[in-house]
Design brief:
about 450 residues; alpha+beta; six-stranded mixed β-sheet; six-stranded antiparallel β-sheet; about 35% helix; about 15% strand; binds flavin-adenine dinucleotide
């Protein structure tokens, strides 16, 4: 059988190669380190963790990334197996000894049947490779970046992410905020109430500007030194250019009338736009920021209507290479323009070690099933894995502003909460119910996968 080629031996590529080999399909894993480095990696090990050593919360009943862990363990994930074997104490989180973890992943792949590791940079993708998984991550080598650009087009590949915070809809106080598009203009979807608006009076605006100017910011590392595009200036940089600048930019109040107090003209308005097809997640328009995460939570909760905001993700700006997956990839993670290529990991627009490995896991299984001539659907949208794939291959809504995403409950279809007394208890019961449904559905999908491979 001709092999599947996986380019990049990071979190996603190592997991993809493992899953392919476990399905009995030969795989060549191409990793350019140690011959050619990246600005962040330090070793030649596969699956090196470039920064923190945490896989985050490990509780499938209460946390979406914990649910992803649980699903991946059921799928025989190499990354989770080695993570579990090299745990360090971290309370409810799964943290790992980074050296032991990466060495274990490397050793398991070096010893695995069906796996060949080629220590080389892939600059161009040979036409003879019939099935390829591209998993070269946020620091894809410049030569391969050029190749990807030629496949996707200039405007479909980003070089850094400029992320505005994303808020869970049910945490916004709609007794203060209201739905309206500026000048009641219907958008392409025909909706004149496409935005959620939060009003600020003059004192609130001045206090808000003081807070974002004074708040602690993360600094770029030297290699992260990317120029700001005018279209995605951090909100605090905008305020540094002039206290009134945000009020003439993303916070302008024109064309909007407060539905709760039509007689009072807001001095400024924070707008949120729907971010996913389910309508559960809303992003703060124009609020990309380098404020530290704790400061973002504190300051953005002073915005009227957002006092109890729960953030699905906070803002940031990083060096990152990722493609416009919702436009470019099909539900099987294949490039529509060249379906022999699949993409996996951070380059698909997911964010985080665990999410990157999870997409590698799915890409590996889908590629192996295809090579074996078996039809395998992507994981169901009720699973954390399926929800993540659904988001990057179609669930995300905001067209040109696709930005990397962590797994979170807002990506999964809502479920009726079992009866419980308090608000907190209801929330916990709902998360548990989502987890129970997801684990049952991932088991069914894994069963289907095993059946497809056996036929
Ligand atoms: C500086 C930095 C810090 C981060 N910190 C965190 C964090 O603390 N926690 C977190 O959850 N996420 C973090 N991330 C985000 C992300 O989760 C990680 O980058 C993660 O490693 C992504 O997994 P991946 O497999 O997609 O890419 P990677 O793990 O980066 O793997 C890609 C691999 O491809 C190789 N490669 C690149 N180009 C080629 C080529 N042309 N040919 C052959 N091989 C190639 C690279 O050497 C690398 O080994 C960070 C990202 C960066 C850039």
């Amino acid at each position: 059988m001709t092999p599947i080629h996986v380019i990049g031996g990071g979190l996603a590529g190592s997991e993809a190669a493992w899953q392919i080999a476990q399905a009995g399909v030969p795989v060549v894993l191409h990793e350019m380190r140690p011959h050619r480095g990246t600005p962040a990696h330090q070793t030649g090990d596969l699956a090196e963790l470039v920064c923190s050593n945490s896989f985050r919360a490990d509780d499938w009943e209460a946390n979406a990334v914990g649910l992803l862990h649980a699903e991946m363990r059921r799928a025989g994930s190499l990354i989770m197996t080695c993570g579990d074997a090299h745990q360090t104490p971290a309370g409810g989180a799964l943290a790992v000894d980074r050296v032991g973890f990466a060495q274990a992943v490397t050793a398991r792949l070096e010893a695995a049947a069906n796996v060949t590791i080629a220590r080389e940079e892939v600059a161009a993708i040979p036409a003879a490779w019939g099935s390829v998984v591209v998993a070269t991550g946020p620091l894809t080598s410049p030569a391969l970046t050029e190749t990807i650009l030629s496949l996707t087009g200039e405007d479909q590949l980003a070089f850094f992410d400029a992320i505005a915070p994303i808020v869970h809809l049910d945490s916004i106080d709609m007794g203060v905020a209201w739905r309206q598009s500026r000048y009641d203009k219907p958008g392409p979807g025909g909706d004149a109430a496409a935005y959620i608006n939060c009003p600020l009076d003059r004192d609130q605006y001045e206090g808000f500007i003081d807070a974002i100017l004074a708040g602690p910011k993360s600094e770029f590392r030297e290699w992260e030194n990317v120029p700001y595009f005018d279209g995605c200036l951090p909100i605090e940089v905008m305020a540094e250019r002039g206290r009134e600048t945000p009020r003439h930019g993303p916070m302008k109040p024109v064309g909007l009338s407060n539905a709760h107090r039509p007689d009072v003209k807001p001095w400024a308005v924070v707008q949120l736009r729907q971010d996913n097809a389910l309508g559960t997640l809303w992003n703060m328009v124009g609020f990309q920021t380098k404020l530290k995460h704790a400061a973002q939570t504190e300051i953005f909760r002073t915005i009227p209507g957002m006092e109890r905001a729960v953030f699905a993700r906070l803002g940031g700006l990083h060096r990152n290479t990722f493609i416009n997956s919702p436009r470019l990839l099909d539900a099987q993670l294949r490039l529509k323009a060249d379906p022999r290529l699949r993409f996996a990991g951070q380059i698909t627009g997911v964010e985080g070690y665990v999410e990157s490995a999870a997409i590698g896991l799915a890409a590996g299984r889908l590629a192996a099933a295809e090579r074996l001539g078996a039809a395998l659907d992507p994981p169901p949208p009720t699973t954390a894995l399926g929800a993540l794939i659904g988001h990057i291959t179609g669930g995300h809504l905001s067209g040109g502003s696709f930005q990397p995403m962590n797994i979170n409950y807002g990506l999964l279809p809502p479920i009726e909460a079992p009866a419980a007394r308090g608000r907190g208890e209801r929330g916990r019961a709902r998360k548990r119910a989502v987890g129970v449904r997801a684990l049952a559905d991932i088991d069914r999908w894994l069963g289907a996968d095993a059946r497809a491979a056996a036929e």
